[in-house]
Design a protein that fits this description.
The complex is a heterotrimer of chains A (170), B (445) and C (139). Helices cover 21% and strands 45% of the residues of chain A. With 170 residues, chain A is of the alpha+beta class. A seven-stranded mixed β-sheet of chain A has the order 1-4-5-6-7-2-3. Chain A starts with a strand and ends in a 14-residue tail after the last strand. In chain B, a hairpin with a 4-residue loop joins β1 and β2. In chain B, α1 crosses α11 and α3 packs across α8. Chain B is globular. Chain C is mostly beta strands and 139 residues long. Chain C is built from one helix and eleven strands. Chain C has a five-stranded antiparallel β-sheet, with no helix packed on it. The mean pLDDT of chain C is 89. Classes of the chains: A alpha+beta (170), B alpha+beta (445), C mainly beta (139). Chains in contact: A-B, B-C. At the B-C interface, loops of B face β5 of C.
Chain lengths: 170, 445, 139
């Protein structure tokens, strides 16, 4: 059972601010602080998508994706970025996470369901921009004074990725 | 040099292809990875003549199921008929050429063209034409207007291959000894391997041969390209620990490496689960089983552009080394652009636990977000950027490692094997075959 | 051949093949005088239906019934019952005409039905005009 959390309400603003601060951490490459926002039970996934006729649904594959992460694997990714040898991110990608269209619902256990649209740009060196758009469906659960990300499903709009890697977080 | 002209108006170009690769000395001209004329000649003489991978039978399980793939860059529909047979056609209506199926995958009882409504059965026959009463017999023979089939079609252990040329020898002959090694990867249990999910697809600014160069068995980039992984302790500490095993030329341009892991039972049989191992021993021949038992890793390429990797990796710092099997199609989309198709495969008999473990290990380490593969893509993009230059192209690339070593005559598999898996021998075998296809009328002779 | 076989509506029935040739569940396209018909064997019986979809007047295709045992139009996917021609799925709204079938001496005979008002290629006769019915409610 979910209850809508109206735009502009106290609960909505708490979630909105959390998402903005999270985006800022990623764009500032503060991955250690970003990792601290992940719940120990985090499920972080990005299903692959195929172009299918409408009668066949949206084309996402629930069992196969571009990310299938746990806290441990996210931690491994962050540690890797902190070595000097993660060449795909040396020099680091300059990202801009534009997060919008937030809609929030509340679960009985106090967790928030947050759906956002995103536009993430990424530039490296003097290469053209990579653009990624899509939707994120998050479960944010209360922990102490704040919230932790318990689940993120990233529904990307691209079927064939127009970038040579996904070395950034969404 | 050799004459091309295998199609009407066949190209002879201005570049002397034969001089671009020196197998003896181990030199490769940079321009093979960047030149538009080389690319066009590859399309004509290699991709329109060689057998190319289309789809795995497990991707079209039911009658009417189809996927859209490509062969030499032209759209191909791979579709299972109501008679159970998998066929492949140019994805083009015979009327105005319209792309008939415009989805990546689907299922249809009839293939209906959205332009004028011509409809085809899943077997490729033209069954319905709009306003048929306005044609006389002389101007409409439906039986001659079925979908254009891929010229030759065959499958090996569920892998459907197509070929646009009638003259190319049949698939078994084309694959030759590579079949022995493919069995070890995809037909090692009674059920064999099947695709898990759809392919991951992404685009890279690199030439397709840069990818095959890595996947012919480049084992010695790991400690630098994947240095971050080594630093995390996810690779064995000694950089020479992975130098063992063999580089193998199975047949012509079909090449691979096989690498042993540590001397513990878990690392045998490529690290596959214990419960699958008795079936592997029973299903494979003694020589194939010996190779499976003795190795943990194998990476290679089915000429020209289908590669595979059977490796054990830790998907994260807490997970144990876990095997996965991935196949890649490096589709050339331009002289310096490639569309990568990457599939994960697993045995039909695999337990749900193993399926989950192998999937996580694969997605976390390879694929576009993989903590290994991200860095390979970076390297290929940047090499390509520099190799385009005219000054850069005055200097050849260097492929000289381990070329002085004689073959390992004790190796149990067919073809030629050399001792040790650090070397550049297999790349040169690949380029040698590549040269033959671009310069000879019958490169298979 | 013997005496002419007449249908219940007193039309000459046409021999379109032998019962032994008909495979269960397969649609055979036949010409009977002016008519194009689909003939299908169901159990020990045979049905013959008009082979023109009632939606957009596309000729239905020979071949297989669907896995549910229905006739599918290749153009827009309308579904019809082979038993009685009833529409089972849009976009068709009118049923297929069922034609009388007689089995005589192992042969399958069908009633071609009345001559149509206008030939399918009526549009090609110089000076011909469409009927009001063809334009329906347009305008």
């Amino acid at each position: 059972m979910t209850q809508p959390v109206p735009v502009g309400s106290a609960g909505y603003n708490i979630v909105l601010e959390w998402l903005y601060r999270e985006a800022a951490l990623l764009d500032n490459m503060d991955f250690t602080a970003w990792l601290d926002l992940m719940a120990p039970e985090i499920v972080y996934e990005m299903p692959t998508r195929q172009s299918v006729y409408q009668k066949d649904g949206e084309g996402y594959d629930p069992d196969f994706g571009f990310f299938a992460e746990s806290h441990s694997s996210l931690e491994t990714r962050v540690k890797r970025l902190q070595t000097d040898q993660a060449w795909a991110e040396q020099p680091g990608s300059r990202t801009r996470h534009l997060v919008s269209n937030l809609l929030v619902d509340r679960l009985a256990d106090g967790s928030f369901l947050a759906a956002t649209s995103f536009l993430v740009t990424r530039i490296r060196s003097d290469l053209p921009y990579d653009f990624f758009t899509g939707q994120r469906r998050d479960v944010l659960r209360p922990e102490g004074d704040g919230l932790l990300l318990a689940k993120r499903t990233i529904l990307i709009d691209q079927t064939v990725l127009k970038s040579y890697n996904l070395s950034i977080f969404f | 040099m050799g004459q091309l002209g295998v199609t009407e108006g066949g190209m002879t170009g201005t570049i002397d292809i034969a001089r671009l690769v020196d197998q003896e000395g181990g030199h490769v001209a940079r321009r093979i990875y960047t030149d538009p004329e080389v690319f066009e000649r590859e399309q004509e003489s290699l991709f329109r003549r060689a057998w190319g991978f289309l789809a795995h039978e497990s991707e079209v399980p039911g009658a009417g199921d189809y996927v859209e793939r490509q062969l030499a860059g032209e759209p191909v529909l791979v579709i299972r008929g109501r008679d159970g047979t998998v066929r492949a056609f140019l994805n083009s209506c015979r009327h105005r050429g319209m792309r008939l199926c415009r989805a990546d995958r689907g299922s249809a009882s009839f293939l209906r063209c959205p332009y004028h409504g011509w409809a085809y059965s899943p077997e490729g026959d033209l069954v319905s034409v709009f306003a048929e009463e306005l044609y006389d017999e002389a101007h409409l023979d439906k039986s001659a207007l079925g979908l254009i089939p891929v010229t030759q079609l065959d499958s090996y252990k569920g892998f459907v291959f197509g070929c646009w040329s009638e003259e190319t020898p049949p698939l078994p002959e084309f694959l030759g000894n590579m079949r022995f090694y493919l069995d070890i990867l995809v037909a090692r249990t009674p059920g064999g391997a099947e695709m898990v999910g759809p392919p991951q697809c992404w685009e890279v600014h690199t030439n397709w041969k840069f990818a095959t160069d890595n996947f012919t068995g480049d084992n010695f980039h790991l400690y630098t390209a994947h240095g971050s992984i080594a630093e995390l302790g996810l690779l064995p500490p000694d950089p020479m620990s992975l130098a063992f095993g063999n580089l193998v030329q199975a047949e012509r341009g079909h090449v691979l490496h096989v690498v042993p892991g540590p001397p513990i039972p878990e690392a045998e049989y490529f690290g596959l689960p214990m419960e699958l191992r008795p079936a592997i021993e029973e299903t494979l021949s003694p020589q194939q089983a010996e190779i499976a038992r003795g190795h943990s890793f194998s990476v290679g390429t089915v000429f020209p552009n289908l590669s595979f990797m059977q490796v054990m990796v830790q998907g994260d710092l807490r997970s144990p080394p876990t095997p996965f099997l991935s196949f890649r199609l490096w589709q050339p989309t331009g002289p310096t652009t490639t569309k990568v198709w990457s599939w994960l495969m697993v045995e039909k008999e695999a337990s749900p636990e193993y399926r989950k473990a192998t999937y996580e290990a694969y997605v976390r380490t390879f694929g576009p977000s993989g903590i290994f593969e991200q860095d390979d893509m970076e390297n290929w993009e940047e090499c390509t950027r520099v190799n385009k230059g005219a000054i850069a192209q005055r200097y050849n690339l260097h492929h000289g490692m381990a070329l002085h070593l004689p073959p390992d005559t004790d190796f149990p598999g067919p073809g030629t094997a050399w001792p040790g898996s650090y070397g550049e021998r297999t790349q040169l075998c690949f380029y040698g075959e590549w040269k033959r296809w671009l310069t000879e009328e019958e490169p298979w002779a | 051949m013997g005496d002419a076989i007449l249908s219940a509506e007193n039309r000459l029935m046409v021999h379109v093949g032998d019962f032994a040739e008909l495979e269960e569940g397969k649609l055979k396209l036949v010409r009977a005088a002016h008519a194009r018909l689909l003939v299908v064997r169901i159990g020990d019986g045979v049905r013959a239906l008009s082979a023109m979809c009632t939606h957009a007047r596309i000729f239905l295709a020979p071949g297989h019934l669907t896995p549910q045992g229905l006739i599918e139009c290749p153009m827009h996917g309308a579904l019809f019952s082979p038993e009685d021609g009833a529409v089972r799925c849009a976009p068709a709204t009118k049923p297929l005409t069922v034609h009388e079938v007689r089995l005589v001496g192992g042969g399958v005979y069908v009633d071609p039905g009345p001559e149509p008002e206008a030939a399918p290629d009526a549009s090609t006769k110089p000076g011909a005009r469409p009927s009001a019915a063809q334009w329906g409610n347009w305008g």
